[in-house]
Amino acid sequence: xxxxxxxxxxxxxxxxxxxxxxxxxxxxxxxxxxxxxxxxxxxxxxxxxxxxxxxxxxxxxxxxxxxxxxxxxxxxxxxxxxxxxxxxxxxxxxxxxxxxxxxxxxxxxxxxxxxxxxxxxxxxxxxxxxxxxxxxxxxxxxxxxxxxxxxxxxxxxxxxxxxxxxxxxxxxxxxxxxxxxxxxxxxxxxxxxxxxxxxxxxxxxxxxxxxxxxxxxxxxxxxxxxxxxxxxxxxxxxxxxxxxxxxxxxxxxxxxxxxxxxxxxxxxxxxxxxxxxxxxxxxxxxxxxxxxxxxxxxxxxxxxxxxxxxxxxxxxxxxxxx
Length: 322
What we know:
single chain, globular
């Protein structure tokens, strides 16, 4: 683990979250990744699909996947929390403390650092799937092994965690907790900051989960043909509308991804938000393109990570996404 990763992990925040991004945004990120793999790395996609099969076959009660499991499994990590697999609930976020009161430091507040976070989870699962560690060498993989005896099942589960957690870390409030005199233990990534409920959006965290009210509610999976066509078209439109810089893929640099979200939260999420009030239209119009573009980075980074794990080469080609 490098110094940057270690220092970031040291600032991980406390308190269970609601899911990062509601289901539609998770599915769009995975759909974008799948489109990239279909176009440029079909063998990698085939390898990932094969990895997903054991859980489908031996634990069908856990999955809500049909003809498009790579995309449809994007909501798996949230869906299974109520099915006896809540052990991974605290692995969905890393709340880096944002101190917004001048002259304060973390020692002034009762902010507790947790033992687990999404950065370390992604790192462990990636190394496990690449064969760099065994299941017993990480708290994350060892807990999966406690629930699944066979390695093929463990790997199938781990891949689903990666697909979901890449989406999680691209919701900026899953990288950040506001810590100040009003929230001395942290605002739980905006979950504590309440607003009038609209379509189930009732706090700052859910404003960003829903992509500024764009994707409220929870989609049904497996996807029917018309839903699949919509996700395909929507992901294509977003990718065209919000092109990304391939030099910022930062493949496997999970700490960098989290810090990017933290910077977004500090600069764009919190400053113009007023607790107790619905975000005004200016806030929505400014923030929505930011999070949509961030989602497209999530899709591209997920695709690149799949190439890293399942491709013949350990490095993603420089022409990736050209």
